[in-house]
């Protein structure tokens, strides 16, 4: 039998604004290496970071792909039975991801590459590759909204092709790795009978099984989320369809280090000193390679957790000035989640129901009043009225719990983000919908659902599911 090797390069996110140059360079490295090692290239979605990329970003994709279409490939596309035509017989296959998804009937940026014959968009169809008589069948399903994916799979009912090695490639959240929504696909929901399952969308590498067969996620080629799981090397998967084995091929990519520092009743000086000491030690690990041609300034994220002493506020810490001080040595992100012990104790008391003889309403009102006083809000603010705004919009079945959590959310905000002059703006952000009994608070949260038709943000995170952070993404 003839071996047919497939390079799986996923989630390049060309145009990602924070690390745009990295996205281009690392995608270029991945595709260049893939073309030199593989008989075909398979892209499980999110070539682009936006559904409507700028012309210069589309030009980046063409620059990367041009050498690939100029290669003399032994493998060719023999047939494709999808609903939309393809315009090349070269084995450069792709499906659109959630970042590229547009409304039904509108072209997405991957369509443009497919119309130009640069890639073959194989979504919702089976493509058959042929390398000197060795054939592989691949069924592709582009990213769609999570609430429609199960219905769509039933509608399409993908089937393997007899007497061939069969691959099912898609771009969705999977519940076993992102346990945030019952809408997410489970491994058992995937169509049966395929020899290999490949998913994009999640940005760290995952190896598992579905229906007793291999299930692989290669991860992204560029850092996008500064999460613990993204400290691993970036690259792509090279899969051998004859031996049914694979290896992960690393590419040169910008290093990312994440470090959590915990404090107990610490003062501002000790927090600053320890933060700087940790930062310097991490930077020094990369200084030896600073003069090499392959050197890339590392990305360092430091997370501060725990409590600060009474009388110290988070606005007094000044730790973020370290990012400016050491900007020539690293790209630095400092995330402070520190709380005062006094405040943390009050919050814990509420959560544990330790309120003595006070009602939940009275305790919450008093805590709100104290917080506003500490932040120098206008003394004329009617605290009871403000609390009532929070209270009346919450369903009675879970009223006690949700009133408490609403107050806690307000306290959990970084004090430096609250401007006393903008109280009316803050108040306006509390939009009460009495018909739905729903409280909408604009707090720039990372609670997102990338699978809604008009939302291209990265999914996978929910503030109510912090315990899963660092394991995944999107």
Description:
- The protein has 474 residues and is of the alpha/beta class.
- The protein has three domains: 5-250, Purple Acid Phosphatase, chain A, domain 2; 256-337, no CATH class; 341-441, no CATH class.
- 28% of the residues lie in helices and 22% in strands.
- Strands 3-6-7-8-9-11-10 form a seven-stranded mixed beta sheet, with no helix packed on it.
What is the structure about, briefly put?
The protein has eleven helices and 19 strands.
CATH superfamily of the largest domain: Metallo-dependent phosphatases
Beginning-to-end CA distance, first to last residue: 38 Å
CATH architecture verdict of the largest domain = 4-Layer Sandwich
Give the overall average pLDDT. 81
Report strand order across the widest sheet. Answer: 3-6-7-8-9-11-10
In this structure, how is the largest beta sheet organized? Answer: 7 strands, mixed
Number of strands: 19
Q: What is the name of the CATH class of the largest domain?
A: Alpha Beta
CATH fold-level topology of the largest domain: Purple Acid Phosphatase, chain A, domain 2
As a whole number of angstroms, the C-alpha radius of gyration is 26 Å
Share of residues in helices: 25-40%
Q: Give the oligomer, counting copies of the same chain as homo and different chains as hetero.
A: single chain
| H-E string | EHEHEEHEEEHEEEEEEEHEHEEHHHHHEE
Number of domains as seen in the coordinates: 3
Low-confidence stretches: 414-474
| Beta-strand content | 15-25%
Shape: globular
The tally of helices reads 11
Structural class: alpha/beta
């Amino acid at each position: 039998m003839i071996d047919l090797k497939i390079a799986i390069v996923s989630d390049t996110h060309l145009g990602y604004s924070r690390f745009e140059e990295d996205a281009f360079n690392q995608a270029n490295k991945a595709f260049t290496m893939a073309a030199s090692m593989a008989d075909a290239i398979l892209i499980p979605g999110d070539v682009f970071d936006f559904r409507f990329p700028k012309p210069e970003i589309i030009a980046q994709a063409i620059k990367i792909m041009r050498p690939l279409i100029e290669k003399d490939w032994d493998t060719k596309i023999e047939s494709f039975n999808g609903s939309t035509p393809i315009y090349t017989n070269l084995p450069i296959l792709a499906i659109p991801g959630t970042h590229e998804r547009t409304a039904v009937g509108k072209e997405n940026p991957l369509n443009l590459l497919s119309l130009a014959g640069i890639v073959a968009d194989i979504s919702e169809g089976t493509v058959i590759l042929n390398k000197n008589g060795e054939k592989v069948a691949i069924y592709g399903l582009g990213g769609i909204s999570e609430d429609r994916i199960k219905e769509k799979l039933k509608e399409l009912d993908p089937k393997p092709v007899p007497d061939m090695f069969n691959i099912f490639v898609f771009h969705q959240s999977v519940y076993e790795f992102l346990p945030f929504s019952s809408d997410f696909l489970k491994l058992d929901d995937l169509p049966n009978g395929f020899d290999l399952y490949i998913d994009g969308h999640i940005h760290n590498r995952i190896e598992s099984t579905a229906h007793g067969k291999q299930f692989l996620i290669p991860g992204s080629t560029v850092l996008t989320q500064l999460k613990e799981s993204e400290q691993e090397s970036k690259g792509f998967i090279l899969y051998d369809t004859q031996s049914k084995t694979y290896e992960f091929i690393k590419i040169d990519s910008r290093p990312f280090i994440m470090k959590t520092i915990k404090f107990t009743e610490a003062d501002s000086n000790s927090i600053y000193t320890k933060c700087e000491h940790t930062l310097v030690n991490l930077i020094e690990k990369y200084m030896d390679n600073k003069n090499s041609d392959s050197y890339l300034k590392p990305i360092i994220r430091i997370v501060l957790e725990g409590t600060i002493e009474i009388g110290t506020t988070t606005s007094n810490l000044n730790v973020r000035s370290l990012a400016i001080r050491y900007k020539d040595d690293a790209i630095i992100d400092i995330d402070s989640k520190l709380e005062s012990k006094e405040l943390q104790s009050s919050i814990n008391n509420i959560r544990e129901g330790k309120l003595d003889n006070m009602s939940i309403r009275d305790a919450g009102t008093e805590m709100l009043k104290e917080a506003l006083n500490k932040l120098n809000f206008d003394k004329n603010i009617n605290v009871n009225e403000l609390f009532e705004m929070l209270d009346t919009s919450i369903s009675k079945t879970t009223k006690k719990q949700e009133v408490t959590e609403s107050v806690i959310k307000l306290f959990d905000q970084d004090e430096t983000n609250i401007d006393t002059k903008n109280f009316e703006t803050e108040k306006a952000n509390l939009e009460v919908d009495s018909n739905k009994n729903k409280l909408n608070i604009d707090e720039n949260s990372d609670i997102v659902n990338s699978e809604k038709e008009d939302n291209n943000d990265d999914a996978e995170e929910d503030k109510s599911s912090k315990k899963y952070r660092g394991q995944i993404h999107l």
